[in-house]
Each structure stands twice: as structure tokens, then as C-alpha cells.
Specification:
The complex is a heterodimer of chains A (288) and B (324). Chain A is mostly beta strands. Chain A has a domain of 168 residues. Chain A has four helices and 17 strands. In chain A, the strands form two sheets. In chain A, strands 5-1-6-8-9-10-11-12-13-14-17-16-15 form a 13-stranded mixed β-sheet. Chain A has a four-stranded mixed β-sheet with strand order 4-3-2-7, with no helix packed on it. Chain B has 324 residues and is an alpha+beta fold. Chain B is built from seven helices and 19 strands. The longest helix of chain B has 16 residues. Helices cover 22% and strands 33% of the residues of chain B. The chains are: A mainly beta (288), B alpha+beta (324).
Chain lengths: 288, 324
């Protein structure tokens, strides 16, 4: 039976919403849910202080959050199964470390959405902040860690900077445009941007693919290789299309200009602003 | 030669006997290309010279063409089935045939076409043709083809996309029909009709040229080292010298070998073949009037001592798919 949590406005204090995952809530009664502890600002309060829980009679493994959701951070943190629907905006770290299930955000999400996710699907109807699908920053160990490892992140609007930073696999689909440093230090995975790529896309990229509708400018390490219809991209787009995910119009069977990254210095050393080896950027070649 | 228990359907005698079939290993390739023609040509190349495991390493054939909506990448395609006696032989044949017959064909990609089975590393070996410039892609998600890995090998017209692993399943091979007739041309037409019906059965192939074999064989030979030799009792020129299995009036014998993904598929294909012959009235008899072209349909077996699958012709007639 789905669980619904209706949050009332409580001010500006951030809420650590990481306990609000389907596998932790679906077996509880509304009373038990409202007694769960939540970290709000520097305090720990029972959840019932900020929300009202209810259950409905339909047979779904779904948790629905309504009301003042914009200050709920770490939604879907490490989620493994089930469905979490946010009928509004979400705060930072939505879906971070997710391993399975589906997180649906019907508004926009803050920074770090899908950071380090390993599986499952995140659908954000609006915009995503910076570092979506990327990796954590702030400590040396975190900076060295890979970004998104798997799963699918769909963003219906625009994405901020450093989308897919350090990505190691997984798929990101952006219906709008992205900020700068998209795919920086990517190791593997696929980023599809229907709109425009920001500057410095693919910086220090090692492998992986970025496909976009257009780009204002590409780093000098990317060389135009050819124009063609790439079968691997067809395969990915078809798989998305069959799942009911909207793919950019014209892309299935469309032609793309392929830009390959290479070692500019030719000596294997990394340097600033340098593209790297097997990474690629595909730009949609719009028909006349 | 009279066979007790035989039944006649539309003037064709169906002997009360069974085909003896054997366990094999099978894989299915899904080949896509820019056009249906190139997919078909690649499928024919991949399944070429694969009439018999006796001398070809595998038995293979084009199962069917695929419309774009049935392929992983939405392009026109063709499905090819391969059958071998062992998993190891199957892995070798897949590597050889995809590498030489599919990758070389313009615009193609090659995918595993079975939903389950034992994985064989194939694309994961072909990738080395890329000489270090190959790249992989993994499909994300929970539904097929999610979780599967593909290799992109740089080639002259872009990239050859091939799936890393192909599934092998236990299958059945050696189902057979022997079509016996008076006039060779009419008997051949009947056999061709039966072969066509077999080849239209999903999951089945008839691996000989056009599906019809003009040289039925038996295991062993008087010559040391020969694994098979001509099945003398079915050779019309040897009537009188051997104990012939050709009934009076039969001067010709064609064999249709049937391989399928399981015994039910083989039985269904044989049933379709029989039906295609007895329903046929396309051959003009020299003395006037149309005839099916065949006089007798029988099957080959080893007394039931070798193969575990026994597909009885009369049971097929009755609409059952009876196997031992």
C-alpha cells in the first residue's frame, strides 16, 4: 500500500530526509512513521512535527511526498527498491548513492542529484543543480572517487555545472542544456544532452560518450573525426524509447558529428584543459 | 516393400516409424544492418557451409528476417540459428562466423538472440580486432537489453557493434523426414515444399542447401576414418544389390534434416513439413491429374538406441507432438 507524507512549511532549516526510502517506510503504520526521528537543522525531532503520514488502499510500493518538499535533502539516499515520488521540488543530494527502484521528482532538484548512484532510475521533471550524476567533493578521498556508477538519471529541464563529473558508467539524459564542465574527468558512461553543452565539456575525459544537440565551443583536444549514424547510440536511444523515456526528436537514426579526444601533448601527461584518449563528443547534425 | 501400420493421407503413405534426434547446443544471432538486404546477406554468410556437423563444424541457417521493431537497434535484421555438438564448438563457430561473415558485411551489428542460457564470450574476443581502439558500452536499466555489454570495433564504415556474450542453450538436432517418390522432379518439388514449411517454423532450421539433402547418410563406413557414408538402402541405383528401403514404384529419395531449439519445435517443424507434402497437389502426373509429388514419407533412426528424442510420424499426423 502506498504511503503518503504531507510536509507542512517549517521555515528554512534543512531536513535530512535520508530515512524516507520505500524499503524503510512501507512496512510501517502512519503512527510509526510519524514517530521516526528526523534531523532538522541541528535537532532531532519526530517526523510527525513536520509531516502527516497516511496510507491508501491501492497495491503499490510507492511513497509519495507532498507539500513543502523543497528543503528535504538526501531524498532517496541509498534507496534500493520501490518508488519514491516527490510532488514538488527536492533539495540537495536527491538519489545520491541510489542502488535500485525509482525516484520521481516532479519539480526541480538541488545540487548533487544522483551523485554516486549505482542503479535505479531518477526522473527529475524540472532542472537539476550542479554536479548531478557526479562525484562528491570536499575531501581528497571523495574527490578521487568515481562519480555515478550505474543507473539512469533523466532531467526534464536544464542541468548545472559538472554534470556527470567523474562518471564511471550509467546514463544521464538532459532534455535541456547544461552548464560548464559537463562530463569532466569521465571514465565511462553516457551523457545525452538534447540542448546545448556548456563550455569545457569532456575536460580530462578518459572514456565515455557525450552526445548533444549543440555546443558553443569544444576544447582544442577534440578533433572532428567523421559524421555518421552510430549504432551504439541507436541501441541506447531505442532502449530508452521502449522504456517510455522521451528521447530527443530526430536522434534515432539521425546523423552526428563525432569528435574524438586525444592526447594533445603526445607524451601521456595530463595537463590543464586537455582532452584525453577514448572519450568522444557527438553533436547532432541537424538536417537542413 | 510393404510397411505394416502405414497410413495413407491424400495418396501419400506415411510410414509408422520415428525420427531419432539428438541433444545439441544452439545459439541465435540477431544481425541488423542498414537495409534488409545487407542483413540477409550477412546472415547467409554467417550460416554458409554449415550443412552438417560431420564436416562443417556446425549446422546453421537463416531462421527468419526481422522487421525493425523486433530488433534491439530498430534497424532491419535477420535471425540465424547455429547448432553444434558441444558448447566449446559453439563458441568457436560463433567467433569464426561473426568475425568473418558478419563483421565484414557493410553496416551490420550483431546481438545475442536468446533470453537465457549459458554465456559464451564472443564479442569480448572479437573486440581485439580493434587493436586497442575498441570501446565498450553497457546498457543501463532493468529491462532487456539492460545489463548487457557491447563492443564497438572501429571499421571502415564506422563501427561494428557486437554483443559481448551470446547465450548457448541445449537444443535438439537430427530430426528428419525422408521423402520418397517416383519422378525425381516431382519428388524434389514436394521435398522443397516440406523444407520451406520447416524453415518457416520459428526456432527451427533445415540446414542443407534449400533445406533438402540429396545424399542421406549413415554413420560409419567400410573405409577406416570415414565418419559417414551413403545410405545405400535409400539409393535407387542400388536396388537389387542391397536390402532396399525404397518401396515399389519409388525411384527417388530426398532427406530433410531438422534442427530446433527444443524437441517440441523439431516436432512442430516436421509436422509442418508432412502437412506441406500431403496438402500439395502441384505436380502434374505423367498419366494426368495433379499429385503431391511424393509417394512415401518416412524417417531415419537407429532403432532408438542412440538418440533420446523419438518423434513419431503418426503422432505428428494426429496433431500430437509425441516424443519419447
Amino acid at each position: 500500500m502506498p504511503v503518503s507524507l504531507d510536509f507542512r512549511p517549517w521555515g528554512y532549516l534543512p531536513v535530512d530526509a535520508s530515512p524516507l526510502v520505500p524499503q524503510g517506510l512501507l512496512s510501517l503504520t502512519p503512527g510509526q512513521i510519524e514517530r521516526l526521528p528526523l534531523h532538522i537543522g541541528g535537532h532531532t525531532l519526530p517526523m510527525g512535527e513536520v509531516c502527516r503520514a497516511a496510507r491508501s488502499a491501492t497495491d503499490e510500493e510507492t511513497v509519495v511526498l507532498t507539500g513543502a518538499t523543497g528543503n528535504l535533502h538526501r531524498l532517496g539516499w541509498g534507496m534500493g527498491s520501490g518508488r519514491l515520488v516527490v510532488e514538488g521540488d527536492a533539495g540537495r543530494w536527491a538519489g545520491a548513492g541510489m542502488q535500485g527502484g525509482e525516484l520521481v521528482i516532479q519539480g526541480s532538484a538541488g545540487d548533487h542529484a544522483g551523485v554516486g548512484m549505482r542503479g535505479g532510475v531518477i526522473r527529475i521533471a524540472g532542472d537539476a543543480g550542479n554536479r548531478a550524476g557526479g562525484r562528491r567533493m570536499g575531501t581528497a578521498a571523495a574527490a578521487a572517487a568515481a562519480g555515478m556508477q550505474g543507473g539512469i538519471l533523466c532531467i526534464g529541464g536544464n542541468a548545472g555545472t559538472c554534470l556527470g563529473s567523474g562518471m564511471r558508467r550509467g546514463l544521464i539524459l538532459v532534455a535541456g542544456s547544461t552548464g560548464d564542465y559537463t562530463g569532466e574527468q569521465m571514465r565511462a558512461g553516457t551523457i545525452l544532452v538534447a540542448g546545448r553543452l556548456g563550455k569545457y565539456a569532456g575536460l580530462e575525459m578518459r572514456r565515455g560518450s557525450i552526445a548533444a544537440g549543440e555546443a558553443a565551443v569544444l576544447l582544442p583536444g577534440f578533433t572532428e573525426a567523421c559524421t555518421g549514424d552510430f549504432t551504439w547510440l541507436r541501441l541506447v536511444l531505442h532502449a530508452l524509447h521502449r522504456r517510455g523515456v522521451a528521447v530527443p526528436p530526430g536522434w534515432i537514426g539521425g546523423k552526428f558529428r563525432r569528435y574524438c579526444g586525444h592526447d594533445l601533448a603526445g607524451d601521456g601527461r595530463r595537463s590543464e584543459m586537455q582532452a584525453w584518449n577514448k572519450g568522444e563528443i557527438l553533436l547532432y547534425d541537424r538536417p537542413e | 516393400m510393404q510397411v505394416s501400420g502405414a497410413r495413407r493421407v491424400s495418396g501419400v503413405t506415411i510410414e509408422d516409424t520415428f525420427a531419432e534426434a539428438f541433444p545439441m547446443w544452439a545459439a541465435r544471432l540477431v544481425i541488423t544492418a542498414a537495409t534488409p538486404e545487407w542483413a540477409r546477406l550477412a546472415g547467409e554468410a554467417a550460416s554458409g557451409l554449415a550443412t552438417s556437423i560431420v564436416g562443417c563444424g556446425c549446422e546453421a541457417g537463416l531462421e527468419r528476417t526481422l522487421p525493425p521493431e523486433e530488433t534491439p537497434d530498430g534497424r532491419p535484421g535477420a535471425a540465424v540459428l547455429l547448432f553444434t555438438v558441444s558448447r566449446e564448438a559453439l563458441a568457436d563457430e560463433l567467433l569464426k562466423r561473426i568475425g568473418q561473415g558478419v563483421m565484414t558485411a557493410p553496416t551490420t551489428a550483431c546481438y545475442n538472440g536468446l533470453e537465457g542460457g549459458e554465456p559464451l564470450l564472443v564479442g569480448g574476443k572479437i573486440r581485439y580486432f580493434g587493436d586497442g581502439f575498441q570501446a565498450s558500452k553497457r546498457i543501463e536499466g532493468a529491462q532487456p537489453p539492460a545489463g548487457r555489454r557491447f563492443w564497438r570495433v572501429p571499421v571502415g564504415d564506422g563501427e561494428f557493434l557486437v554483443e559481448e556474450s551470446f547465450f548457448a542453450v541445449q537444443a535438439v538436432g537430427g530430426g528428419n523426414l525422408l521423402i520418397l517418390g517416383e519422378d525425381p522432379a516431382c519428388t524434389l518439388q514436394a521435398a522443397a515444399a516440406a523444407a520451406e514449411a520447416v524453415r518457416r517454423t520459428p526456432g527451427a532450421i533445415a540446414p542443407f542447401p534449400g533445406g533438402v539433402c540429396r545424399s542421406p547418410s549413415k554413420i560409419g563406413s567400410r573405409y577406416a576414418g570415414l565418419r559417414a557414408s551413403s545410405n545405400a538402402p535409400f539409393c535407387p541405383t542400388l536396388r537389387g544389390r542391397v536390402d532396399s528401403r525404397l518401396p515399389a514404384g519409388c525411384h527417388c529419395c530426398y532427406e530433410i534434416v531438422v534442427d530446433g531449439l527444443d524437441e517440441t519445435v523439431v516436432a512442430r517443424a516436421m509436422q509442418a513439413g508432412i502437412r506441406a507434402v500431403v496438402d500439395r497437389t502441384g505436380c502434374a502426373h505423367p498419366e494426368g491429374g495433379p499429385q503431391p509429388g511424393a509417394l512415401v514419407i518416412t524417417a531415419g533412426n537407429f532403432g532408438g538406441k542412440l538418440g533420446p528424442y523419438h518423434i513419431h510420424l503418426h503422432s505428428l499426423l494426429a496433431g500430437e507432438e509425441a516424443c519419447r
